User: What shape does this take?
Amino acid sequence: MKPREVQSYDALAEEIWKSAQALLGFNFVAQRQWYEQTFCLAALGDSLAVARNWDLSGLEAIEYALILRHSWFPDQIRQMTPRDKWLSLHEELAGLEMAYGAKQAWRDREATELDSNDSPEDVWRIYPRGYPVP
Assistant: This one.
């Protein structure tokens, strides 16, 4: 499988952000959370596909892994939240790193350099980065 280029991660981020806006309307916190989790899940799907030598990428690789692991149907998987997909594949995704291009697109979109303590797993917390936890 050919890894995504930096430009296609930028395009992926933009596509996911537009989907978040269309799906979640004016709920900015929910948009942000869905965007961050979906982008990271797609990037981890790329890493999983490379590790398993699959000719898939992104969310397709995640769906395929869920089918293999749990024997769920694609329609069932597509109804799950990004966080539930990640949790269901935690063992498979543990230890995988997002590709450099994905990290770069993330940094460019966020307009900040990630702190050395930041982790892709931070997006699975209840509230997105930058928002106060009540």
